[in-house]
Structure to design on (872 residues):
């Protein structure tokens, strides 16, 4: 029992850094509770006046499972956050054109018969929203109030940061070939001292970032303590914020050699964006995206002790609002006839990055993928690409099928690899199903 | 210098409990910086990537002055909070009918000539919004982004709790003559064991609640540590939440004898409301008020370690949204033709409480007032009544002048008494000015 607990804890750590340890997690899989046994509707976490005993979720148990199923919908109730304001514009309509997709049958990654509805449950899905040609064809929520609560998106956050950076490159405000210290002098003596902005965007910079969960001197602990993701231990004397921590990281290997997934690159990229624009990430998100797409709800972002946003992992938003965002991306940067991002920027994301370099990632569960400006590109026949975060967060865009899928989940296992093979089959099934 | 700092600290403590120590604060007034010397636009708190040195505001210095001027607009960036959702209804219009009120001249409480504009600045006002017959006649913000940021309202929060409780009494769901343990059995052995709900609502219950800021064994420290308003000291073994703390408080004196202002009564009243309705205070606020009045922005509330809202001090909202709320109250519980609260409930607030009992409060700066269901009633010729919170938060309603004033401020001094005499003169001036 104790070792299972330790494993959950370990898995959550992976949150912070993305997921180079996925194979480890995959290798050591404990007995997992089925989703129907851990529904918030039955568990009644944080209900009662006051909640008592095992109904309480706090900073000590928030990352355990199944408590995590609550935590991912209630981040602001546990930590400081900054608002991403939708403004006062009317809510943009998502025209409903319901299709009965849940019974649509397909074969899972093990060749077994399944359906969209079963896949949705099997993969611990909280919210599933599907647009086809901009119409809302499917929308189902399986975990209490997942329709209205802003859901923690983990590394989906990166794709927003990458998009804003790519737009600034397009506008000539950032030179992707410049070295990072041109924009962030504080990083001159760090791993980023001789790294280009493009290497940061595509995560091909070489930074020493060890994740040894039994060794608190490894960098993953530094990041977790500095960002506030983990409470600082007594007498802690290390960096107290993300921007104090990043300059301590050193180079290891050769920049540009291969793709190695590191959340710290996204934090650096967000830092560059703020230095160049003079604006806080949350304000840019509001002005450039949330106020322009007629979002239903404000979004928000986790912040560290000096207000720096977790630009690689801290965004929280609702599924319908993410669908609006995905539809804007699918439409080449336009939404309701208004240009939001340049077509060339979206095209560049879609075209993807270097598939050879991607192989260095060790992410066998993403076969044939590449990574470009903080987006995952499938390089399949439909030209699909996606944003992805651990515990099962996805914005999947399929241009050929004119489809956007938002899937927000609360897996017991952090790693995207946990359900990715199954979900790849579901993407194909959905692309067929919406064309019915 | 050190004693001035200590005094600021002391003053902030008063936040938690309302203000029975106002006279103390009034007696010992340090040299105060003029408002124009402490404008957020000039101080640049929490700007820069990252903010450094004295630009940083954190849980250690958030209650100091002038840092407090930032803190009151950015509560969620420092502590956990729960959302009060506006929903997806269109924003209700506040028809603009601007009047040039700022030059309107009157005599201040010392008989000196002044103007509305000067009073606004003199009293460290962040936001001032005035409605006349439901029209927006005046709106001015003097402290960076005070128009869009949710401002901490301190004890204005109580008036929302009181209103919801009064409505439940009206509907027969709460018996105001019942003893508190009928609804909250947890309080059977506390000061509230033999106290009626009405005594809680009007703060005439007798509870031992000492505020000795040099003695951490007094109850004010218990409240501050339990609610999360102050960080718990090392090895702290006391109550860890508001509802763990309240049952420890004991009776002192006779219930019903006189009005003694205690924030803990508001927390008990909120507890009763949640027990009776089965709903969290934030959800009630959303369903009964925020979703019904076409608010522009979500509001939010500070919560303790188990999600219990600070029902006596933790609400944060924008000035324009509070003006909408005030207009609904002025209109006898209706808004845009829709009934929100019963006319009888609003009438009962307006009629006020026992003015003789009020004299026990020691609040000489509120001459002739009474307190009813967590509202302050002026008993003046215009029938005015108001919600009020420390550091200068006010929703002032003048039925005769058909006027609602929302004033959000960030005084260096916590106590309402700091500017109240001056503000009473301003209320009269405004009532004349809007009739021009």
């Amino acid at each position: 029992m104790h070792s299972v607990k330790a494993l959950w804890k370990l898995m959550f750590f992976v949150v912070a850094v993305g997921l180079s340890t996925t194979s480890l997690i995959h290798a050591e899989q404990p007995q997992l509770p089925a989703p129907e046994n851990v529904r918030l509707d039955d568990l009644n976490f944080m209900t009662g006046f006051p909640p008592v005993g095992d109904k309480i979720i706090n900073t000590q148990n928030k990352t355990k499972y199944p408590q995590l199923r609550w935590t991912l919908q209630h981040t602001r109730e546990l930590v400081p956050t900054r608002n991403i304001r939708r403004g006062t514009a009317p809510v943009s309509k998502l025209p409903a054109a319901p299709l009965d997709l849940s019974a649509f049958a397909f074969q899972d990654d093990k060749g077994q018969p399944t359906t969209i509805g079963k896949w949705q449950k099997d993969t611990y899905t909280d919210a599933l929203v599907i647009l086809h040609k901009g119409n809302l064809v499917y929308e189902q929520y399986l975990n209490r109030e997942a329709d209205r609560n802003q859901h923690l998106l983990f590394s989906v956050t990166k794709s927003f940061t990458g998009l804003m950076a790519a737009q600034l490159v397009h506008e000539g405000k950032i030179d992707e070939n410049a070295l990072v210290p041109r924009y962030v002098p504080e990083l001159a003596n760090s791993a980023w001292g001789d790294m280009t902005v493009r290497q940061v965007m595509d995560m091909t910079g070489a930074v020493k970032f060890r994740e040894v969960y039994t060794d608190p001197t490894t960098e993953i602990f530094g990041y977790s303590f500095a960002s506030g993701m983990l409470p600082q231990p007594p007498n802690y004397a290390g960096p107290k914020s993300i921007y104090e921590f990043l300059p301590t990281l050193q180079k290891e290997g050769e920049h540009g050699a291969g793709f190695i997934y590191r959340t710290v690159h996204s934090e650096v990229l967000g830092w560059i964006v703020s230095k160049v624009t003079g604006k806080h990430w949350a304000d840019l998100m509001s002005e450039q995206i949330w106020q322009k797409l007629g979002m239903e709800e404000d979004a928000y972002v986790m912040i560290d002790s000096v207000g720096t946003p977790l630009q690689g992992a801290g965004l929280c938003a609702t599924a319908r609002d993410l669908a609006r965002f995905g539809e804007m991306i699918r439409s080449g940067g336009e939404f309701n006839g208004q240009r939001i991002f340049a077509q060339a920027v979206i095209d560049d994301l879609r075209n993807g990055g270097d598939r050879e370099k991607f192989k260095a990632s060790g992410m066998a569960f993403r076969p044939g993928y590449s990574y470009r400006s903080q987006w995952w590109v499938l390089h399949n026949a439909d030209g699909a690409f996606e944003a992805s975060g651990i515990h099962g967060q996805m914005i999947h865009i399929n241009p050929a099928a004119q489809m956007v899928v938002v899937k927000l989940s609360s897996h017991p296992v952090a790693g995207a690899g946990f359900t990715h093979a199954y979900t790849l089959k579901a993407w194909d099934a959905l692309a067929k199903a919406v064309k019915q």
Summary: The first helix of chain B runs from residue 2 to 17.
